[in-house]
Amino acid sequence: MKKDTDKYLAIGISLGLCFGACVGIIISFIMNKSNFIFGIPLGAGLGMIIGIIVGSILDSKNKI
User: How far apart, in whole angstroms, are the C-alpha atoms of residue 11 and residue 9?
Assistant: First the structure.
């Protein structure tokens, strides 16, 4: 069986997408409903970037 070396990166991207989209929805409801269409993609994008950074750091520490 092949060992998954980028396990935390894949988990970080998927969780970042979900949590970022949820945060984007909440922020767009709080601020203004007219920006709802922009809140979800911006939140999901930021969540994925954070997930990529955290996942890359965790994967690089596991490879050492």
Answer: 5
- What are phi and psi for residue 36, nearest 5 degrees? -60, -35
Q: Can you give the pTM of this predicted structure?
A: 0.73
pLDDT tens per residue, range 2-56: 566 777 888 888 888 888 888 888 877 877 766 667 777 888 888 889 888 888 8
Task: Report residue 52: phi and psi, to 5°.
Answer: -65, -45
Pair of tokens at residue 12: 């970080």
End-to-end CA distance of the chain: 21
8 A C-beta contact, residue 40 and residue 25: yes
Whole-number Å distance between alpha carbons of 58 and 13? 13
At residue 1, the pLDDT reads 44
